[in-house]
Design a protein that fits this description.
FAD/NAD(P)-binding domain; 7-stranded mixed beta sheet; 10 helices; 22% helix
């Protein structure tokens, strides 16, 4: 693919798991023309993960028995097989994505930053640092890691977000983590293991959640196991007593974390903000309406409700109370998006049934709310 190509049937923006996976599904549609653009290299977001972070979901090669690897983006691949590891790091997973792109010959144009997107009578013009390109349809698969959620209290300039390397560096004495879901518990347990005394602050106390079997709302088993080990040291405190309202430097290099109506907690280093990420829609942000909770509003085909032809793929996908925030969840929609685009353009989409056969195609969202009985 080059920027001088004629109008493509679709352009996918982003070459992480959502972009690569959706691109591979689209490439199975007969005679459909597509391209994938990426601001860095394939798996760029994962290359930027702090070295200590690893996947919460395990990889295991069971494809031959009808059990697709949870972290695979194509039915015939397995990160466990290609990497030889069960819980990949970001760099390892980026290597897997790169190998998949190479093996299937997916047309990815790297080092291409999308600056602006405009609608046209025939679809979209995507303006990049390397020039414009045209497409009939567009898939935003930019991910979330580049859009860390900002602090909602005074003192946001004196905290370190959990997505940064400095947040994972060794810290002495008292460490305060603001936010107690996956990223908060992960980094808290990391610092406990390094010898620090850690306090996690979250008025919603997600570590106690018992809202069903969906790991998008409860801590993953890997996190629960880490948490149990950290609590056993006696150096981990989980606090749900009030909301953080301010962080400010205190005396002797310490930091004061003020909690509404309850005084303050002291930290011997900059507090760590572990409140997750936003939708990360970048230049297409205005092309999506927003739900009441701030996430992009989508129709039943993961298409924008205000910009026809613009689809969303990745962890920001939400439908009613469903969150598609793990790879094994949002990959269920790759082939569905590909089929919607293909059929709309009059293409043969029969080859996408291999995604369904591998358990990687969900077009009936009602099945996603099924709970485990035990």
């Amino acid at each position: 693919m080059t920027l001088s190509s004629p109008t493509l049937d679709t352009v996918v923006i982003g070459a992480g798991p959502a972009g690569v996976g959706t691109g591979l599904a689209l490439s199975a549609v007969t005679s459909l023309t597509l391209g994938v653009v990426e601001r860095g290299s394939v798996g760029e977001t994962f290359r930027r993960w702090p070295g200590e972070q690893r996947f919460l979901t395990p990889s295991f090669t069971g494809n031959g028995f009808g059990a697709t690897d949870l972290n695979a983006v194509h039915p015939k691949t397995s990160p466990a097989f290609s990497l030889g590891i069960d819980y990949p790091s970001g760099a390892e997973y980026a290597r897997y994505l790169g190998s998949v792109v190479k093996h299937f010959g997916l047309p990815v144009l790297g080092d291409t930053e999308v600056i602006e997107v405009r609608t046209t009578d025939d679809g979209f013009t995507v303006y990049t640092n390397r020039g414009p390109m045209a497409a009939h349809t567009l898939v935003w698969a930019g991910g979330e890691f580049h859009a860390p959620a900002s602090a909602r209290f005074n003192g946001s300039t004196v905290v370190d977000h959990s997505s940064t390397d400095v947040a994972w560096s060794r810290r002495e004495g008292r460490v305060v983590v603001i936010g107690g879901y996956e990223s908060g518990i992960d980094i808290a347990c990391h610092h406990v293991a390094l010898g620090a005394t850690v306090t996690v602050l979250d008025p919603e106390h997600p570590w106690d959640a018992a809202t069903g079997s969906d790991p998008s709302f409860n801590l993953a088993p890997r996190s629960q196991h880490k948490l149990a080990r950290a609590k056993a040291t006696g150096r981990l405190t989980l606090s749900s007593d009030g909301m953080v309202v301010a962080v400010k430097p205190a005396s002797s290099g310490t930091f004061s974390v003020s909690i509404a109506g309850l005084g303050a907690v002291l930290a011997d280093s900059r507090p760590i903000l572990a409140t997750g990420f936003g939708p990360g829609l970048g230049p297409v942000s205005r092309m999506f309406a927003r739900r009441d909770d701030g996430w992009p509003e989508l129709d039943a085909n993961d298409e924008s409700t205000i910009t026809p032809g613009l689809f969303l793929s990745g962890p920001s996908v939400r439908h009613a109370g469903l969150k598609f925030c793990f790879v094994y969840k949002f990959r269920q929609r790759y082939a569905h998006i590909a089929r919607v685009i293909g059929e709309r353009l009059g293409k043969d989409c029969d080859a996408l049934e291999q995604w369904r056969d591998a358990g990687m195609l969900t077009d009936d969202l009602s099945c996603c709310a099924v709970e485990c009985p035990c």
